[in-house]
Backbone:
């Protein structure tokens, strides 16, 4: 059966009404632009013939009730349906405190956006005839109340039952934490593993078993498309972090049964207080990059001495911005060979060492053909 639909992804909005903004000298998030940037995106998306919008988590700055309420009201005014899942910033605490909503309160704010059953933090809904969306909650809490990125056993059991009953419908999955690695050794690296779903391998087994090929994630704040054994994890950068991207995608199933996904990425170029947002935001990130880069260089696998890391770090000022851009090529020929080769791995290259520019604009053939 032929199938064609168009949708958009905007991720990690970190919505922050002006009176809720708190400052931190090292934060990469430029939350000051959150509402203006989102309005700019919506102005563009309203001109397109969209079937729906996906928002893979971190809807708010830090789970503030007024920011959740503002976003829910704004989404209700759109000319197309929108669907959300919670990010770590949306439900940072199990019980409500003076700043954030309670974990269990999240679905009550978003009943119109996937959560018809507000007693459950995950859902299965029909997007279009023959097309379903599974919205997962990747936020859990350990016995000490610490937040972790993991699907609990009850949710996994629910998911297996839902997928088994799906028939031949196309299934899209949306979850905040990454399911496929987007960075070198992401699952084990001490700086990157918190962006991965702890039990991603278990989820991937389920998805492959039931023929699910497309997963949409956020959290990492980079533009990247990764694939593991036929499952694509398309992660979208943050709207409040360089390069302030969003995506418009078109799915097509032709008369031969081949399935294609066309990805076109856009960026917010300007908002009232930041007329040259791309340059200002890249500089903002670079200004805060030194401690981040030093930590990367001194941790495994490089384990550089602190003095050497501090010497190299200024040359890596734009390291994370280049990764966030997507399709980046990273090469520092004057670096020690071991460091040079390691940094190269963060670029958009295949396992065989060739450039693969699929992170921003690409046409993917989905499935095993």
Residues:
């Amino acid at each position: 059966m032929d199938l064609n639909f168009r949708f958009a992804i905007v991720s990690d909005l970190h919505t922050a009404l002006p009176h809720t903004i708190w400052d931190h000298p090292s934060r990469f998030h430029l939350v000051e632009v959150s509402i203006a940037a989102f309005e700019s995106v919506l102005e563009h998306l309203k001109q397109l013939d969209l079937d729906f919008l996906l928002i893979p988590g971190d809807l708010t700055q830090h789970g503030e009730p007024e920011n959740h309420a503002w976003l829910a009201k704004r989404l209700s005014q759109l000319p197309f349906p929108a669907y959300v899942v919670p990010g770590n910033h949306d439900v940072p605490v199990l019980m409500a405190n003076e700043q954030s909503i309670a974990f269990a309160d999240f679905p009550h704010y978003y009943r119109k956006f996937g959560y018809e059953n507000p007693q459950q933090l995950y859902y299965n809904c029909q997007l279009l005839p023959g097309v379903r969306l599974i919205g997962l909650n990747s936020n859990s809490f350990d016995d000490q109340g610490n937040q972790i990125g993991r699907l609990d056993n009850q949710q996994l059991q629910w998911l297996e039952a839902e997928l088994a009953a799906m028939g031949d419908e196309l299934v899209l999955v949306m979850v905040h934490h990454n399911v496929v690695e987007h960075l070198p050794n992401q699952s084990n690296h001490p700086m990157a593993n918190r962006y991965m779903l702890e039990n991603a391998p278990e989820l991937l087994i389920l998805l492959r078993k039931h023929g699910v090929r497309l997963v949409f994630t956020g959290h990492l704040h980079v533009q990247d498309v990764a694939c593991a054994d036929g499952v694509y994890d398309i992660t979208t950068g943050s709207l409040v972090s360089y390069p302030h991207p969003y995506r418009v995608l078109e799915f097509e199933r032709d008369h031969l049964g081949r399935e294609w996904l066309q990805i076109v990425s856009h960026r917010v170029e300007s908002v009232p207080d930041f007329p040259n947002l791309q340059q200002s935001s890249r500089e903002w990130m670079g200004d805060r990059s030194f401690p981040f880069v030093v930590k990367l260089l001194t941790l495994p696998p490089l384990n550089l001495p602190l003095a050497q890391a501090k010497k190299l770090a200024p040359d890596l000022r734009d390291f994370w911005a280049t990764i966030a851009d997507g399709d980046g090529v990273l090469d520092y020929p004057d670096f020690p060979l071991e460091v040079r080769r390691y940094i190269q791995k963060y670029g958009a290259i295949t396992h065989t060492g060739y450039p693969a520019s699929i992170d921003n604009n690409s046409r993917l053939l989905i499935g095993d053909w």
